[in-house]
Design a protein that fits this description.
two-stranded antiparallel ribbon, elongated, 7 strands, single chain, 4 helices
Amino acid sequence: MVEIDPINQSAVVVSALLWPYKTIVAFEPENRLARRNNWQQQQQQQQQHQQQQQQQQQQQQLRQGGNSNIRERSFVCVDCGKAYAVHRSLWRHLKFECINAKPKFTCDACPYKSPHKWCIENHKKKHHSNVYN
C-alpha cells in the first residue's frame, strides 16, 4: 500500500504487503535533488561569507598596519619606479632587468646581446644549432 505522509508531504510511505508492521519511507527523487541543491547553495553561501570575512579582516589589518605577513616594499628602483621588499631583489633588477641593464654577453655568430649567460646559451641552441654542433 502506498500513501503520502501527512506530516512530510514530500515523503511516500510504503507498507510491506507480507509484513504489515514494517513501513518504508521513500522520498521522491525530485525532492531529494531539490534538498541536495539547497544544501549545495547553502554551502556555497557559507564559503562566500567566510571569504568576505577574511577579506574584510585583511583590509582592516592593512589599514591598521598590523599584518606581519605582508612586507613593506621599501626598496625602489630609481630608473623605473619598481619596488621590492628585499634589497637583493632590487640589486638583481638593476643588474639584469631594468631599463639601464647593460647586456654583458654577446652571441659569437650574430649581434644578439643579453645580460644573462643562460639566455645566450639558449639562443645559440635555438638559432645556431648547426654551427655549434
